[in-house]
């Protein structure tokens, strides 16, 4: 278990750009400045931020830090797709009160499966680390906290924290040393993007029968009702759609998809190719073990 250096977590004075929305005072009331608000950026997401006055070139736009994104229930979004420069309108701003939370239910997204396994062995230390990380932020029910902007030693190799529920109901929540943290799920970043958020399902024409066949095999293997082997070989000339077919099916079924290019495995140094292949299979095996545990 890696040692937790809680002093490595930056103080608020060192994180002046975190969870801030910089907007012109020509389009907002003075009463809204230095207040936490929910800024609607789409039908599925809002940014929870603190409005700070600043002279900007275009009054209609605001510069924001999307560290905390509130998403619609059961509709996770990719937090890295949120733009930093967004149009702002008074109708899109919802003032919100901030209260101290006594209890939070969260899921944790780690940089990779290795760190997921390390931290999952001790949920008490993990809860302690989460408590110290979240003191930098104000959060809400059904929100994603993006920690990727912090250094790895500061965020303990945690990329995101998903806040499922707090005891603050419709208010924003602030964490303190007495807040109880309940971790209900841990996952790696690749699991989060592909299995939770989901890959984009690209259109695929003229291969309906192949898609149906491949989906039926994977579904049967998932349910344990198939006696087929767990390996499928697709054969066809270059450009026939093999990769597109696999990507389409993986996105549709929210399966984890590893895109491996043979040139990435070959290395001129003696033993390096074998090491890369071993590391790749080890990562896949760890993901399979995590999936079996979650089931």
TrEMBL record:
Q: Which InterPro entries match?
A: ATPase_AAA_core (IPR003959), P-loop_NTPase (IPR027417)
Gene Ontology molecular function: ATP binding; ATP hydrolysis activity
Q: Which Pfam families match?
A: AAA (PF00004)
> Can you give the residue ranges of the ATPase AAA-type core domain?
232-285
Q: Which chain regions cross the lipid bilayer?
A: none
Q: Which domain of life is it from?
A: Eukaryota
Name-wise, this protein is ATPase AAA-type core domain-containing protein
